[in-house]
């Protein structure tokens, strides 16, 4: 006997597509050495438990030293160019790991790290991060000068997947798709 599936129990089955480089950027605090440019971190999608980012940088660009919270691990998918992650191990010793196109880097939760583009090509990586209550240790310590407000984390699409609602969106970053409603037609959770 074939049982018919009840699709009404699933979340709304309308995918959304985001243009990464039209997404809001995340401001990173900290100084770069010798005026090196910062890498650009585009915040694409934020759900109740997941953050995705699209990060780019020219040769020599960096993300300065920073620390994530003890519950925020990162999985980084290298798309193009080469990048080096500097991190401090459990004894505080600085280590490095290089990422090449087609490689995936895992950074443990709480890792104090710095990122730099190496080689002669632009680098791009996609970040998949667990969404913590507080993303950076600097937020806990109150050392937030130049750092984004984690309570209003910027993203092209902020989706409450527990309640199947769009919290907010950046219309210019959403790519048109069949029957895509305008933002004023989407349910908003506040």
**Total domains, how many?**
1
Give me the side-by-side strand order of the main sheet: 8-5-10-3-2-11-12
User: Radius of gyration from the CA trace?
Assistant: 18 Å
Structural class, from helix and strand content?
Answer: mainly beta
Number of helices: 1
Under CATH at level 1, the class stands as Mainly Beta
- Tell me the β content: 35-45%
Helix-strand pattern, N to C?
EEEEEEEEEEHEEE
- Describe the global form: globular
CATH topology, by name, is: Jelly Rolls
Summarize this, please?
By secondary structure, this protein is mostly beta strands. The protein has one helix and 13 strands.
Describe this structure in words.
By secondary structure, this protein is mainly beta. The chain has a single domain (17-169), classed as Jelly Rolls. 3% of the residues lie in helices and 38% in strands. It is built from 1 helix and 13 strands; from the N terminus they run ββββββββββαβββ. It has one helix at residues 137-141; strands at 17-18, 40-46, 50-57, 62-67, 74-80, 82-88, 94-99, 104-107, 112-118, 123-130, 157-160, 165-169, 174-175. The protein has a 7-stranded mixed beta sheet with strand order 8-5-10-3-2-11-12, with no helix packed on it. It has a 4-stranded antiparallel beta sheet with strand order 4-9-6-7, with no helix packed on it.
